[in-house]
């Protein structure tokens, strides 16, 4: 029986090796999403499309939960050729000020609005990425963000006064929560659970999909539905390494990225209902925040972006002008 088991194991190993070397090229996709997250679903959907549609030319291997690095490390590894794809979201505002437009509170109304912004302004975002050595293969999302904490329900910005709040690495998110009265601290996503559990941070802000998959509901008392920012995510590659790929491979990757975006938007909309129930079931107290009060308190952020970022006011006007489908 032992010999039979060894033969089975050896056969399985040969099969796995055959799979690993079947493709002409293997591309690594690293991301910070935990199992069950929207990031994981989006990346896996992209990889499955590539692996089944490109006639064995390319195999995309996925590595979640920050296995290949946190967001900033992944950005560096893209340029070094150690990783082929990453899925940054808020951290892109540290790559170029242009991406800070998506840090403006309530500037994106819904996913249809985001589609219109993408169609009208993608060349601008692509140019900004390429100027820093990156290439946007396609868009995913990190979704509409809400606040959790262990101090009190957040109804209006003043309720954030003094709360130690984890934010992603992005200058505009920090400025926004400083304006609201919180004490924001940028921190890598993989460190947040422990920071909340130990009281180093009182709270954090994320979409339901990130909150639930990271199990923040186990270490947070309050969820306040603010929807203060919608963050796109970017299937990002190195401009140098992506442009060196055969043209048909580039085209296939872009096509799968576009299909992934459709999948992600549908999955995200479904999870918004399903995961809110999961968070509530864990005993978290949920309240609807006064969004009008947050919008009013956000005016100085828009003014600062217009003053500090070249072309900032024009970008604000362009995005707001696309809010209606007419």
UniProtKB/TrEMBL annotation:
UniProt protein name = TRAP transporter substrate-binding protein
Main localisation, per the record? periplasm
Could you tell me the keywords of this UniProt record?
Periplasm, Signal, Transport
Family, per entry: Belongs to the bacterial solute-binding protein 7 family.
Q: Which Pfam families match?
A: DctP
Location in the cell reads: Periplasm
Q: How far does the signal peptide extend, from start to end residue?
A: 1-22
Q: Does the keyword Nuclease apply?
A: no
Query: So which domain of life are we looking at?
Result: Bacteria
């Amino acid at each position: 029986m032992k010999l039979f088991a060894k033969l089975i194991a050896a056969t399985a190993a040969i099969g796995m090796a055959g799979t690993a070397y079947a493709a002409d090229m293997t591309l690594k996709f690293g991301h910070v999403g935990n199992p069950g997250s929207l990031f994981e679903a989006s990346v896996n959907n992209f990889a499955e499309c590539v692996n089944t549609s490109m006639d064995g030319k390319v195999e995309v291997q996925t590595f979640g939960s920050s296995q290949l690095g946190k967001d900033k490390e992944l950005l560096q590894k893209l340029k070094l050729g150690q990783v082929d794809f990453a899925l940054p979201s808020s951290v892109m505002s540290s790559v170029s000020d242009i991406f800070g437009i998506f840090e403006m509170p309530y500037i994106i109304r819904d996913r249809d609005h985001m589609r219109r912004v993408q169609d009208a302004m993608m060349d601008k975002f692509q140019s900004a990425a390429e100027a820093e050595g990156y290439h946007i293969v396609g868009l995913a999302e990190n979704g509409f963000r809400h606040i959790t904490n262990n101090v009190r329900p957040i109804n209006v910005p003043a309720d954030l006064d003094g709360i130690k709040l984890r934010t992603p690495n992005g200058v505009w998110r920090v400025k926004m929560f400083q304006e609201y009265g919180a004490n924001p601290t940028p921190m890598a996503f993989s460190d947040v659970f422990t920071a909340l559990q130990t009281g180093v941070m009182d709270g954090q802000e994320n979409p339901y999909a990130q909150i639930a998959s990271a199990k923040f509901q186990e270490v947070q008392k309050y969820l306040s539905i603010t929807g203060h920012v919608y963050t796109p995510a970017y299937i990002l590659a190195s401009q140098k390494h992506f442009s060196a790929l055969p043209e048909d491979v580039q085209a296939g990757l872009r096509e799968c990225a576009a299909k992934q975006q459709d999948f992600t938007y549908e999955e995200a909309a479904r999870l918004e209902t399903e995961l809110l129930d999961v968070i509530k079931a864990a005993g978290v107290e949920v309240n609807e925040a006064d969004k009008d009060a947050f919008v009013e308190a956000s005016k100085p952020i828009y003014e600062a972006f217009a003053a500090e970022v070249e072309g900032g006011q024009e970008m604000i006007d362009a995005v707001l002008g696309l809010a209606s489908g007419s």
